[in-house]
Amino acid sequence: MIATEKKAPLVLILGAPGAGKGTQAERIAQFLNVPSISTGAIFRQNIKEETELGKRANEFISKGEFVPDSVTNPMVAARLEAPDVDNGCLLDGYPRTVEQAHYLRDALASKGKEIDLVLEIVTNQEEVIARLLKRAEIEHRADDNEEVIRHRMEVYREMTEPMATYYADQDKLVQVDGMGTIDEVWARIEKALLDAGFARN
Ligand code: AMP
Protein backbone atom coordinates (compact mmCIF):
# COMPACT_ATOMS: atom_id res chain seq x y z
CA MET A 1 0.00 0.00 0.00
CA ILE A 2 1.27 3.47 -0.80
CA ALA A 3 1.65 5.61 2.29
CA THR A 4 -0.72 8.55 2.14
CA GLU A 5 0.39 10.31 5.29
CA LYS A 6 -1.32 13.64 5.58
CA LYS A 7 1.00 16.48 6.45
CA ALA A 8 0.23 18.20 9.73
CA PRO A 9 -0.04 21.89 8.90
CA LEU A 10 1.82 24.37 11.12
CA VAL A 11 0.55 27.83 10.34
CA LEU A 12 1.27 31.12 12.04
CA ILE A 13 -0.93 34.21 11.96
CA LEU A 14 0.46 37.71 12.53
CA GLY A 15 -1.14 41.09 12.67
CA ALA A 16 -0.86 44.36 14.54
CA PRO A 17 -3.11 44.71 17.59
CA GLY A 18 -6.73 44.91 16.43
CA ALA A 19 -6.06 43.44 12.99
CA GLY A 20 -8.75 40.88 13.76
CA LYS A 21 -6.30 38.02 14.01
CA GLY A 22 -8.16 36.26 16.84
CA THR A 23 -11.33 35.94 14.77
CA GLN A 24 -9.50 34.88 11.63
CA ALA A 25 -7.33 32.48 13.65
CA GLU A 26 -10.45 30.60 14.74
CA ARG A 27 -11.57 30.30 11.12
CA ILE A 28 -8.17 29.11 9.95
CA ALA A 29 -8.05 26.51 12.73
CA GLN A 30 -11.50 25.28 11.69
CA PHE A 31 -10.54 25.21 8.00
CA LEU A 32 -7.40 23.17 8.72
CA ASN A 33 -9.08 21.20 11.52
CA VAL A 34 -6.23 21.90 13.93
CA PRO A 35 -6.14 23.46 17.42
CA SER A 36 -5.56 27.18 17.69
CA ILE A 37 -2.90 28.19 20.21
CA SER A 38 -3.20 31.81 21.30
CA THR A 39 -0.65 33.00 23.84
CA GLY A 40 -2.78 36.09 24.53
CA ALA A 41 -5.80 33.88 25.28
CA ILE A 42 -3.75 31.61 27.57
CA PHE A 43 -2.49 34.67 29.46
CA ARG A 44 -6.00 36.16 29.76
CA GLN A 45 -7.35 32.86 31.08
CA ASN A 46 -4.59 32.76 33.70
CA ILE A 47 -5.25 36.39 34.67
CA LYS A 48 -8.94 35.57 35.09
CA GLU A 49 -8.13 32.57 37.27
CA GLU A 50 -5.57 34.62 39.21
CA THR A 51 -2.82 32.03 38.81
CA GLU A 52 0.84 32.88 39.51
CA LEU A 53 1.48 32.90 35.76
CA GLY A 54 -1.47 35.25 35.30
CA LYS A 55 -0.23 37.65 37.96
CA ARG A 56 3.24 37.74 36.44
CA ALA A 57 1.93 38.15 32.88
CA ASN A 58 -0.50 40.88 33.84
CA GLU A 59 2.32 43.15 35.06
CA PHE A 60 3.46 43.35 31.43
CA ILE A 61 0.21 42.96 29.49
CA SER A 62 -1.50 45.84 31.31
CA LYS A 63 1.31 48.13 30.12
CA GLY A 64 1.26 46.86 26.54
CA GLU A 65 4.65 45.20 27.02
CA PHE A 66 5.58 41.68 25.99
CA VAL A 67 5.58 39.03 28.67
CA PRO A 68 9.23 37.94 29.11
CA ASP A 69 10.47 35.02 27.03
CA SER A 70 11.39 33.19 30.26
CA VAL A 71 7.63 32.91 30.91
CA THR A 72 6.27 32.72 27.37
CA ASN A 73 8.64 30.27 25.68
CA PRO A 74 8.31 27.38 28.17
CA MET A 75 4.54 27.90 28.27
CA VAL A 76 4.33 27.46 24.49
CA ALA A 77 6.81 24.57 24.49
CA ALA A 78 4.62 22.75 27.03
CA ARG A 79 1.50 23.40 24.94
CA LEU A 80 3.23 22.05 21.83
CA GLU A 81 3.86 18.77 23.67
CA ALA A 82 0.12 18.04 23.92
CA PRO A 83 -1.07 15.19 21.67
CA ASP A 84 -3.67 17.34 19.89
CA VAL A 85 -0.81 19.21 18.17
CA ASP A 86 0.37 16.04 16.40
CA ASN A 87 -1.95 16.85 13.50
CA GLY A 88 -0.72 20.42 13.27
CA CYS A 89 -1.75 23.72 14.82
CA LEU A 90 -2.42 27.35 14.19
CA LEU A 91 -0.28 29.70 16.27
CA ASP A 92 -1.88 33.04 17.09
CA GLY A 93 0.28 35.66 18.77
CA TYR A 94 3.41 33.54 19.05
CA PRO A 95 6.17 33.98 18.03
CA ARG A 96 6.23 37.78 18.21
CA THR A 97 9.96 38.46 18.03
CA VAL A 98 12.87 37.10 16.03
CA GLU A 99 14.19 35.56 19.27
CA GLN A 100 10.91 33.71 19.85
CA ALA A 101 10.92 32.59 16.21
CA HIS A 102 14.38 31.10 16.75
CA TYR A 103 13.21 29.38 19.94
CA LEU A 104 10.20 27.96 18.11
CA ARG A 105 12.33 26.83 15.17
CA ASP A 106 14.58 24.87 17.55
CA ALA A 107 11.65 23.44 19.54
CA LEU A 108 9.99 22.23 16.32
CA ALA A 109 13.23 21.03 14.73
CA SER A 110 13.78 18.69 17.67
CA LYS A 111 10.58 16.94 16.53
CA GLY A 112 11.45 17.13 12.83
CA LYS A 113 8.86 19.86 12.25
CA GLU A 114 8.89 23.41 10.92
CA ILE A 115 6.47 26.29 10.28
CA ASP A 116 4.83 25.87 6.85
CA LEU A 117 3.17 29.21 6.34
CA VAL A 118 3.03 32.64 7.99
CA LEU A 119 -0.01 34.79 7.23
CA GLU A 120 0.28 38.47 8.06
CA ILE A 121 -2.91 40.53 8.21
CA VAL A 122 -1.97 44.01 7.06
CA THR A 123 -4.08 46.89 8.38
CA ASN A 124 -4.38 50.65 8.50
CA GLN A 125 -3.24 51.91 11.91
CA GLU A 126 -5.88 54.59 12.53
CA GLU A 127 -8.78 52.33 11.55
CA VAL A 128 -7.41 49.67 13.84
CA ILE A 129 -7.17 52.09 16.77
CA ALA A 130 -10.86 52.92 16.30
CA ARG A 131 -11.68 49.18 16.22
CA LEU A 132 -9.70 48.52 19.41
CA LEU A 133 -11.32 51.36 21.33
CA LYS A 134 -14.69 49.89 20.39
CA ARG A 135 -13.59 46.43 21.59
CA ALA A 136 -12.35 47.99 24.85
CA GLU A 137 -15.88 49.19 25.56
CA ILE A 138 -17.26 45.69 25.05
CA GLU A 139 -14.57 43.47 26.63
CA HIS A 140 -13.06 45.80 29.25
CA ARG A 141 -9.54 44.62 28.46
CA ALA A 142 -6.91 46.35 30.59
CA ASP A 143 -4.61 46.71 27.57
CA ASP A 144 -7.15 48.51 25.37
CA ASN A 145 -6.89 52.19 26.31
CA GLU A 146 -5.54 54.51 23.62
CA GLU A 147 -2.11 55.07 25.15
CA VAL A 148 -1.51 51.35 25.65
CA ILE A 149 -2.88 50.59 22.17
CA ARG A 150 -0.45 53.04 20.54
CA HIS A 151 2.38 51.56 22.56
CA ARG A 152 1.42 48.01 21.50
CA MET A 153 1.45 49.14 17.87
CA GLU A 154 4.89 50.63 18.27
CA VAL A 155 6.08 47.39 19.88
CA TYR A 156 4.56 45.44 16.95
CA ARG A 157 6.45 47.58 14.42
CA GLU A 158 9.72 47.36 16.32
CA MET A 159 9.66 43.74 17.43
CA THR A 160 7.26 41.78 15.25
CA GLU A 161 7.76 43.37 11.81
CA PRO A 162 11.40 42.21 11.76
CA MET A 163 10.12 38.71 12.47
CA ALA A 164 7.83 38.93 9.42
CA THR A 165 10.96 39.72 7.40
CA TYR A 166 12.68 36.68 8.94
CA TYR A 167 9.89 34.46 7.53
CA ALA A 168 9.75 36.38 4.24
CA ASP A 169 13.43 35.55 3.75
CA GLN A 170 12.43 31.87 4.00
CA ASP A 171 9.61 32.38 1.47
CA LYS A 172 7.04 31.51 4.14
CA LEU A 173 5.32 34.88 4.49
CA VAL A 174 2.04 35.70 2.74
CA GLN A 175 0.56 39.15 3.41
CA VAL A 176 -3.21 39.53 3.33
CA ASP A 177 -5.10 42.83 3.18
CA GLY A 178 -6.87 43.07 6.55
CA MET A 179 -9.18 45.97 5.71
CA GLY A 180 -12.86 45.23 5.14
CA THR A 181 -15.41 42.99 6.79
CA ILE A 182 -14.52 39.78 8.61
CA ASP A 183 -15.90 37.76 5.67
CA GLU A 184 -13.96 39.77 3.08
CA VAL A 185 -10.71 39.28 4.97
CA TRP A 186 -11.51 35.59 5.48
CA ALA A 187 -12.05 35.12 1.73
CA ARG A 188 -8.52 36.45 1.11
CA ILE A 189 -7.06 34.21 3.82
CA GLU A 190 -8.88 31.16 2.49
CA LYS A 191 -7.47 31.85 -0.97
CA ALA A 192 -3.98 32.23 0.50
CA LEU A 193 -4.35 28.87 2.28
CA LEU A 194 -5.56 27.15 -0.89
CA ASP A 195 -2.79 28.78 -2.95
CA ALA A 196 -0.28 27.48 -0.40
CA GLY A 197 -1.59 23.95 -0.99
CA PHE A 198 -3.79 23.49 2.08
CA ALA A 199 -7.18 21.89 1.57
CA ARG A 200 -10.18 22.27 3.86
CA ASN A 201 -10.06 19.48 6.40
P1 AMP B 1 -2.85 39.14 21.92
O1 AMP B 1 -4.14 38.61 22.42
O2 AMP B 1 -2.13 38.22 20.99
O3 AMP B 1 -2.98 40.53 21.34
O4 AMP B 1 -1.90 39.29 23.20
C1 AMP B 1 -2.22 40.17 24.27
C2 AMP B 1 -0.97 40.51 25.06
O5 AMP B 1 -0.40 39.32 25.62
C3 AMP B 1 0.16 41.14 24.27
O6 AMP B 1 0.01 42.54 24.10
C4 AMP B 1 1.37 40.80 25.12
O7 AMP B 1 1.44 41.65 26.25
C5 AMP B 1 1.02 39.41 25.62
N1 AMP B 1 1.55 38.38 24.68
C6 AMP B 1 0.82 37.60 23.83
N2 AMP B 1 1.63 36.81 23.11
C7 AMP B 1 2.89 37.10 23.50
C8 AMP B 1 4.17 36.64 23.10
N3 AMP B 1 4.32 35.73 22.12
N4 AMP B 1 5.26 37.15 23.73
C9 AMP B 1 5.13 38.06 24.70
N5 AMP B 1 3.96 38.57 25.11
C10 AMP B 1 2.84 38.10 24.52
TrEMBL record:
<dbReference type="Pfam" id="PF00406">
    <property type="entry name" value="ADK"/>
</dbReference>
<keyword id="KW-0545">Nucleotide biosynthesis</keyword>
<keyword id="KW-0547">Nucleotide-binding</keyword>
<comment type="function">
    <text>Catalyzes the reversible transfer of the terminal phosphate group between ATP and AMP. Plays an important role in cellular energy homeostasis and in adenine nucleotide metabolism.</text>
</comment>
<feature type="binding site">
    <location>
        <position position="100"/>
    </location>
    <ligand>
        <name>AMP</name>
    </ligand>
</feature>
<comment type="subunit">
    <text>Monomer.</text>
</comment>
<dbReference type="GO" id="GO:0005737">
    <property type="term" value="C:cytoplasm"/>
</dbReference>
<feature type="binding site">
    <location>
        <position position="180"/>
    </location>
    <ligand>
        <name>ATP</name>
    </ligand>
</feature>
<dbReference type="GO" id="GO:0004017">
    <property type="term" value="F:AMP kinase activity"/>
</dbReference>
<dbReference type="GO" id="GO:0005524">
    <property type="term" value="F:ATP binding"/>
</dbReference>
<feature type="binding site">
    <location>
        <position position="44"/>
    </location>
    <ligand>
        <name>AMP</name>
    </ligand>
</feature>
<keyword id="KW-0418">Kinase</keyword>
<keyword id="KW-0808">Transferase</keyword>
<feature type="binding site">
    <location>
        <begin position="93"/>
        <end position="96"/>
    </location>
    <ligand>
        <name>AMP</name>
    </ligand>
</feature>
<dbReference type="GO" id="GO:0044209">
    <property type="term" value="P:AMP salvage"/>
</dbReference>
<feature type="binding site">
    <location>
        <begin position="18"/>
        <end position="23"/>
    </location>
    <ligand>
        <name>ATP</name>
    </ligand>
</feature>
<dbReference type="InterPro" id="IPR000850">
    <property type="entry name" value="Adenylat/UMP-CMP_kin"/>
</dbReference>
<feature type="binding site">
    <location>
        <position position="141"/>
    </location>
    <ligand>
        <name>AMP</name>
    </ligand>
</feature>
<dbReference type="InterPro" id="IPR027417">
    <property type="entry name" value="P-loop_NTPase"/>
</dbReference>
<feature type="binding site">
    <location>
        <position position="152"/>
    </location>
    <ligand>
        <name>AMP</name>
    </ligand>
</feature>
<keyword id="KW-0963">Cytoplasm</keyword>
<dbReference type="InterPro" id="IPR033690">
    <property type="entry name" value="Adenylat_kinase_CS"/>
</dbReference>
<comment type="similarity">
    <text>Belongs to the adenylate kinase family.</text>
</comment>
<feature type="binding site">
    <location>
        <begin position="65"/>
        <end position="67"/>
    </location>
    <ligand>
        <name>AMP</name>
    </ligand>
</feature>
<keyword id="KW-0067">ATP-binding</keyword>
<feature type="binding site">
    <location>
        <position position="39"/>
    </location>
    <ligand>
        <name>AMP</name>
    </ligand>
</feature>
<protein>
    <recommendedName>
        <fullName>Adenylate kinase</fullName>
        <ecNumber>2.7.4.3</ecNumber>
    </recommendedName>
</protein>
<comment type="pathway">
    <text>Purine metabolism; AMP biosynthesis via salvage pathway; AMP from ADP: step 1/1.</text>
</comment>
<feature type="region of interest" description="NMP">
    <location>
        <begin position="38"/>
        <end position="67"/>
    </location>
</feature>
<feature type="binding site">
    <location>
        <position position="135"/>
    </location>
    <ligand>
        <name>ATP</name>
    </ligand>
</feature>
